[in-house]
Write a structure and sequence with these properties.
Elements (H helix, E strand, L loop, with lengths): L12 E4 L3 E5 L3 E6 L4 E2 L2 E2 L7 H15 L8 E3 L13 H4 L3 E5 L2 E2 L2 E8 L2 H10 L1 E2 L2 E2 L9 E7 L2 E2 L11 H8 L1 H24 L2 E13 L2 E5 L8 E5 L15 H8 L14 H19 L1
Antiparallel strand pairs: 1-2, 2-3, 3-7, 4-5, 6-7, 8-14, 9-12, 9-13, 9-14, 10-11, 14-15, 14-16
Helix pairs in contact: 1-7, 4-5
């Protein structure tokens, strides 16, 4: 079963993102992960069946595992605890939704990289640096970095996020908070990386989002999912090129092989690509949470 859109009449739709629908419940928010998939900042017309359930269940797993590092916005994902008006939507919401605290969202994306890939690899090839951080010479694509690095970016409502130096993040949210966010991000990454490695998965990089609730820093949105992270099979790791993955890089690679200028409308995905992508997402869920 594929769920691309969910309508709830009893509560206002606060935001409809590339994947998530967010409804305002008054003193809290309802997060729903649909099966939509995006690539190159375009929402694709083809959904990945039950992808939203993978994202939700992985986030719930990580929220629990990482709670001692940084608290998070989760209130409940138990449908029986949802407000009465939501009960009639239980079949649509079960497994792909959660009720969360309202938070003052920090206007930066908090990216941690342990390996050289994606936009970081492109920047390194040009400058030998990522967001101003000097890296050793001679690294190749997918090289493990000497230590994880924190490389924040802007948070764009539309279009591309842009990598920024830590000094610019300080200007945006202040030095004390920026330092707290950087340190929390690096600790979260290291903890998750070690867990993933014990399950045969390399966590190459990931993106965290944070908010403030009564002045306390908390982890929000999704966390450490195939949509927000690069997961590679440890047994196939071979630096020097792009790696096999458990994330949507498979979709990006397919789309890059087409004669498409990466502007909307995006092309449909063939059934074989949809099935392979679904398989990769569920592999990540099973390996990481078993």
């Amino acid at each position: 079963m594929t769920t691309k859109n969910i309508e709830i009449k009893e509560y206002p739709l606060l935001k409809s993102g590339k994947v998530r629908e967010v409804f305002d419940l008054g003193d809290s928010l309802l997060f729903i992960a649909t099966d939509r998939i995006s690539a190159f900042d375009c929402i694709l017309p083809t959904a990945i069946p039950d992808k939203g359930k993978v994202l939700t269940n992985l986030s719930l797993f990580w929220f629990k595992l990482l709670k001692d590092v940084v608290d998070n916005h989760l209130i409940t994902a138990d449908i029986s605890e949802y407000p009465t008006p939501l009960q009639k939507y239980s079949e649509q919401l079960d497994g792909r939704s959660m009720i969360v605290k309202k938070a003052e969202v920090l206007p930066v994306e908090c990216i941690v990289r342990g390996y050289l890939s994606g936009s970081g690899w492109k920047e390194y090839q040009q400058t030998g640096k990522i967001t101003g951080i000097k890296l050793p010479e001679g690294l190749v694509e997918s090289s493990e970095l000497p230590e994880p690095i924190f490389t924040p970016s802007t948070k764009a409502d539309s279009g591309h996020d842009e990598n920024i130096p830590f000094s610019e993040m300080v200007e945006i949210i202040g030095e004390d908070l920026a330092t707290q966010v950087r340190d929390a991000s690096l600790t979260l990454y290291s903890t998750a990386r070690d867990h993933a490695k014990s399950r045969g998965i390399i966590l190459a990089d990931t993106k965290f989002e944070f908010g403030l609730v009564e002045g306390e820093l908390i982890l929000i949105d999704e966390v450490l999912t195939p949509d927000s992270s690069r997961f590679w099979p440890l047994d196939l790791y071979n630096p020097g090129s792009s790696q096999p993955s458990f994330d949507k890089q498979f979709v990006r690679d397919y789309l890059s092989s087409l004669d498409w200028d990466k502007t909307p409308p995006a092309p449909e995905l063939p059934t074989a690509i949809v099935e392979k992508t679904k398989e990769k997402y569920f592999q990540a869920l099973e390996l990481l949470t078993k």
